[in-house]
Amino acid sequence: DIQLTQSPSFLSASVGDRVTITCRASQGISSYLAWYQQKAGKAPKFLMYAASTLQSGVPSRFSGSGSGTEFTLTISSLQPEDFATYYCQQFNSYPLTFGGGTKVEIK
Amino acid sequence: EVQLLESGGDLVQPGGSLRLSCAASGFIFSNYAMSWVRQAPGKGLEWVSSISGSGGSTYYADSVKGRFTISRDNSKNTLYLQMNSLRAEDTAVYYCAKYGSGSYYDPFDYWGQGTLVTVSS
Q: Between the CA of residue B109 and those of A25, B62, B120, what are the distances in Å?
């Protein structure tokens, strides 16, 4: 099984900050990586796929990069509505796996 | 507008059974693979099972293989998850999720709101 390790697991930041979350895969997954945002008590929301292609409607302050085993999600200027938990997910092979999540909280 | 509406979650005793349903609308249901993903209280996301658009092929996580069965009725635009021999560790919110295409190698572009399954005596 492919393990995904997210770091940090918790992040405290202020509105306007630049935030970067890392997702490392235990083996190469090409660009078969997606990012999701989940707010408390809500379903996950799809943000981007192929490591860097934004889903329609997702603000351009979100960006992604990486391939192989190391990936990043960056929020260029954190907004109040961005405080949430972020998950990476690989869809290169089964079983599908998710990272452990990164909770972004207000400083 | 794509909508996924789960139902069937409940409190059930260990060893019991439950069937979850997910009613889909806003897209051609039979064209898309579908999946169940769960989230234990305060924990992360765990993929459970997936099914092809035709229903002819399925995948399961090892943690549920042999106990859970995924199925779909394309005439009713509905996805199911039959859960047998339930354990305390199956307690979670269960989400229905749609793949971005008919392929299994796509992310989940839409998710339902979830239904809570609690396994406890």
A: 21, 24, 32
